[in-house]
Design goal:
The complex is a heterodimer of chains A (432) and B (226). Chain A is 52% helix and 19% strand. Chain A is α+β, with helices and mostly antiparallel strands and 432 residues long. A six-stranded mixed beta barrel of chain A has the order 3-4-11-8-10-9. Chain A has a two-stranded antiparallel ribbon with strand order 2-12. In chain A, strands 5-6 form a two-stranded antiparallel sheet. Chain A is elongated, with a radius of gyration of 32 Å. Chain B has one domain (30-57, 70-218): P-loop containing nucleotide triphosphate hydrolases (Rossmann fold, 3-Layer(aba) Sandwich). Chain B has helices at residues 43-50, 73-83, 99-110, 115-124, 140-152, 170-185, 197-200, and strands at residues 3-14, 17-28, 32-36, 58-63, 66-67, 84-87, 158-162, 189-194, 205-210, 213-218. In chain B, a hairpin with a 2-residue loop joins strand 4 (58-63) and strand 5. In chain B, helix 3 packs across helix 4 (115-124), helix 4 (115-124) packs across helix 5 and helix 5 packs parallel to helix 6. Chain B is globular, with a radius of gyration of 17 Å. Classes of the chains: A alpha+beta (432), B alpha/beta (226).
Chain lengths: 432, 226
Amino acid sequence: MFFRMIFGAVTRQKQKLLMMACTMALGISLATAMLNVMLDVGDKVNQELKTYGANIMVEPRGASILSDLYGVREGAGVSGKFLFEAELPKMKTIFWAFNIVDFTPYLEVQARVNASEAPVAMVGTWFSKHLDIPTGESVDTGVINLKSWWEIRGAWLKDADESGVMAGAAFAARNKLKEGDTITVAVRDREGRERAAELTIRSVYHAGDKEDDGLLAPLAVVQRLSRLEGKVDRVEVSALTTPENDLARRAAQNPHSLSRHEWEIWYCTAYVSAIAYQIDEVLTDSRAKAVLQVAASEGAILQKTQLLMLLLTVLSLACSALAISNLVTANVMERSTEIGLLKALGASDGQISLVVLTEMLFATALGGVVGYLVGIGLAQIIGQSVFGSAVAAKGLVIPLIAVLVLVVTVGGSLPAIRMLLRLRPTEVLHGS
Amino acid sequence: MKNILELNSVSMIYGPVKALHDVTLNVREGEWVAIMGSSGSGKTTMMNIVGCMNKATHGTVFLDGEKISRLNAKDLTAIRRDKIGLIFQQFHVISYLTAVENVMIAQYYHSMADEQEALEALERVGLGHRARHLPRQLSGGEQQRLCIARALINHPKLILADEPTGNLDEANQEIVMDIFHQLHGQGSTIVVVTHSPDVASHAQRVVRLEFGRMVREEQPVERHVA
């Protein structure tokens, strides 16, 4: 009979229950959307911040000391230390491999252009290099992704284009060069022998930095001209990181000062220092350092954005809960005569509460499921319009929403049910 | 015949108002008693006390030999469920349950729902053909007959009806009173609370209340059916 009562209530009071399900669906869709966006906003903002450059710089250990002591980084020929290009794919095998969004190597040499005596900085790099990782995966990485804000007149160079070069805007202007012009570039190796090549300017870039006063070529071209095949003098890495805290700052100074437990926490958290440490582990004689200014700014922005989203989510959850709870309370109060009759017929308080709560939970659970699905859609709209990408549907949201539905329904019903159970049948059945 | 209901010096006081004042009444098993009085005479108060929906301020009440005047709410609910069939002036039914389900619900809270028995109860009040209809598809008279079927389903010791024809037209009033006659003929004890002399005239004994006091008892002669 219990199930016949529930079935009767659900199928023959469709409008009432539909109204409740709709309100629940509205509230839950808002809560689902906000929760999903909140849980994903960290990754999204982090991803956005990655477009503003690398946050880890890897250099050969010796060169790193020079740069630490004197603040200079002169490239090839000064420290005589290099990293090995062939080792770079190993960076995608570290514990936090998936957090490494992009990386690109550089080899910087001094070149003479068109027999001019004034040397020009010529940098070899990957533009969009296809790499097969030892784990079996493959990635395309390079300066195109890493310097997405550069303004390019023409098109980015291809890695395979060994007769092409990109000219910095300042260099091109000074030498009255434009796309399509051919220049002769001569590079002297460490033994003093000079090698020259004729290269065509494919495009002109504006980086807004000292790089504008130089040339950018495929890494292989610069390695061949300088006889430094397979070598690079620095690598820029863009990684998704967790904002630094005290533990991370202590670890950055000296990882060995941490206790075993602290070390495990640090190593298994995507702190920029932990990722840098892990890069050091796979590259021979390397010194990976966080670009602290970038990392700190990213952390601050991320924390503020997450806090803002958390507040918005809590606010929207509270509003949804209030609206739903009011409707549930109103619905239960409407049923005073029915509850009075059930009491007159001999139903116990527990039996009455069970019937009312089951009906409510059925309607609100239905609304909750619909609301969840609508909320996922809403989250996608927010994701596309704000971040230009989809928001991942987080599994954690499902139990959170289930608990919310339960708490709001039971919380909204109980005070009203308690009030009704205190009513005497005579008060409602005689209409007085 | 033993007394099924005994009220001894029962009073009900609401603040300064004495709704019922020192009422003593005995109802024998199988008897049909009408409690008559105008509005405010205390007849509904009396019904609430007898129906275990309220407790008297003073006096004692025995139902089927059990003293109910000092029972707690839970025990009163059990007595109401097991021994009393209630019929109200308004046709209180569950709107989203069919006629037969409305009868079965009384069985469910009493012991165990039995659809066949519920259908038979509806047959007894002439509603067998309307068993699968929802209350909104029934007329006022049919809804009241449904309430009577529900009141009968658990074979109560006492059928307690509060203005059972108050919302019915003459034709439906006749049908309901005919059902009461059938029930009485089958040995049911009936207490009808009414202000209508016509309804009261069907009873074996009429108890008159005025301002909360029992003023007299009489035997209706006009339409008495034994």
